[in-house]
Amino acid sequence: MQSQIVLILLIAAIETITTAVYGRTCFNKNVTESSQFTLASGEVMTIERFTCDNHPALASPDPPSGLQKRQSSACSQSNCVCGIPCLFLDCNAPTRTIQASHCTALAQQLEDMSGPFTIPANEGLGFILQSCEYTAFGSLTQSTQYCFHDMGVAALEIFSVCGTQQGACQGQNNAGFFVDQIAL
Question: What does the UniProt keyword field contain (predicted)?
Answer without folding.
Answer: Signal
